[in-house]
Description:
Radius of gyration: 20 Å
Helix content: 10-25%
Number of helices: 5
Distance between the termini: 45 Å
Amino acid sequence: MESKWKSWWEKVTPLPLFQLPEAPRYRLQRAPLVQAIAQVRYPIIARLESLSGIAPLQDALREDFPYMEQEMAQEVSLVVGPAGPAAGASEASITWKLTNDSGTQIVVGAGSASLSAGASYTTVEAFAADFERMLNALISVGVPRCDRLGVRYLSVAEDLPGEDRSWRRWFKPELLGWAGSEIIADGVLETSINQVMLRQPPTGDLSGPPADIQATVRHGAVPGQTQVPSIPPLHIAVPSYLIDLDVYSVGHQRFQPASILEQFELFHQQIDRFFFWSLTDEGAKHFGMVNDT
Length: 293
């Protein structure tokens, strides 16, 4: 008899979000990536907010993430410019931050767990290996179901010193729009934030809960002192061009690390295709693109 938690992923063949060719293997010697995040959400497990409840998960991750501290987490909105903290933050909840000497961190709460890497990010393979460790630790403490899987990559291209809108040469005009064109005089652009939301409904015979593959793409020019909600929150000190690519699935599935890792890889491929497409030849040179064969 088929389990009622049979993964919807096993029943659906997702179509690409972007009609773009697969990106070749490459690396950037001066990558604008400032943060990579992989997150799973699951039904609330109240004991994970207590010290005794989190202890088994800490033990499972101790070898690779030996340090742990308690935090009070709040969700805030994007704050552009020096306007100060956003008003109306949600009620705080207890989370646990597990870190290592490289700076990669795992944040675990009663209903979600996130892996994030900033300067410690090296390759997607290394990041996926840490994500697998997190998933295995979660299943060892009884997480039964994944309600949402998200993969998010944030890149920030800073203006060159003394040059306004350097990013106009690095990213394609199709991405920049009129805000990156010559019709705006030098030195007057303050902010230009675009948000595009995509949704790929499932195909095939779905008898379980509804499930979508979705993406939120935020991009645009931001001034200095911009705060971006993330894990941990991101502070952009100088005028820059932001590309925030978030691909995620919404729908119940069994908490199976192998299946979730497969989805992570597919979501990352979509993000990689988009970013590779976004670069001009000058942008590829500026960020130090090297082919990895």
